Amino acid sequence: MRILLCNDDGIFAPGLRALLPELKKLGEVMVVAPATEQSAVGHSITLLTPLLVQDVYDEHNERIGWAVEGRPADCVKLAMTELLHEPPDLLVSGMNSGSNAGINVLYSGTVAAAIEGAFFDVPSIAVSLEYQRPMKLNYPLAASLARRVIEQIIMHRLEPGMLINVNIPSLDQGLPKGIRVVPHGTRRYEESYDRRKDPRGRTYFWITTKIECPPGSGEADVTALTERFITVTPLQFDLTSYRDMERMHDWQWDINAIRGEGLNAIKS
């Protein structure tokens, strides 16, 4: 099996470095990752500046892969179109430092790299490790757990472009209780900002987002993580609301009214 490994924390991030040897137990691994941290960049891509690419080696002078001066989605695009001789059988994005659960999947560069892989019809898995407070994370153990989850996923016949989001709960209280297949939560964050002044008297804001799953929110990834379960969530990038589309087909649309406004605008 040929595996493409990407992330959004950067090619030297401890999560990627821990996951790399675990994935090598499953097959050949090619790493194409951002040169610097790209957390919360979502699915942005680089348009106005060149994408610099260089080989990266570890402390033992062994090649890790390619570092790209760009976004996670850039890394996957370059890997698929320029850097790899043939498409991978699987893309893994991670292991992210911090969970990518709930509405956070929309902001996540980790998930965006997996989505980009799915664009290319490659089965793609995003992997993240939750942490609840500043502490030394057990990346080797989390990577081992992630690899075992990935093994169970690929035991089944994955459709081209299948997209899966995996979150490992915080390990500071011990091993996870189990694995749950759950939807991602859609609750909006309780967002707030700390208003401050810089030394020159200019106003600036520092986000102080509080992320908590509300009581009674039902079975979702954020809830399951709180209960210390590994979460597995199948995703899709088709954002069409088919329910609303069916309803909107019955709306009365008047093209003549639009044309009339357009003609008046031209005459004026």
Describe this protein with a few key phrases.
two-stranded antiparallel sheet; 11 strands; Stationary-phase Survival Protein Sure Homolog, Chain: A; alpha/beta; 9-stranded mixed beta sheet; 268 residues; single chain
Q: How does this model look, in words?
A:
The protein is α/β, with parallel strands linked by helices. Helices cover 28% and strands 23% of the residues. It has a single domain (2-186, 216-241), classed as Stationary-phase Survival Protein Sure Homolog, Chain: A (3-Layer(aba) Sandwich). Helix 1 (14-23) links the parallel strand 1 and strand 2 (28-34). The mean pLDDT is 91.
Topology:
Layout: E1 2-6, H1 14-23, E2 28-34, E3 53-57, E4 63-68, H2 72-83, E5 90-97, H3 109-119, E6 124-129, H4 139-154, E7 163-168, E8 179-181, E9 193-197, E10 203-207, H5 221-226, E11 230-235, H6 242-248, H7 255-267
Helix pairs in contact: 1-4, 2-3
Residue ranges: pLDDT <50 for 5 or more in a row? none
Mean pLDDT: 91
How is the main sheet built?
9 strands, mixed
- The radius of gyration computed from the alpha-carbon positions, rounded to a whole number of angstroms, is 21 Å
Shape: globular
End-to-end separation in angstroms reads: 64 Å
Order of helices and strands: EHEEEHEHEHEEEEHEHH
Across the major sheet, the strand order is 3-4-2-1-5-6-7-11-8
Give the helix level as a range of percent: 25-40%
- The helix tally amounts to 7
Structural class: alpha/beta
Number of strands: 11
CATH class: Alpha Beta
CATH topology: Stationary-phase Survival Protein Sure Homolog, Chain: A
Number of domains: 1
Annotated CATH architecture: 3-Layer(aba) Sandwich
Proportion of strand residues: 15-25%
| CATH homology superfamily | Survival protein SurE-like phosphatase/nucleotidase
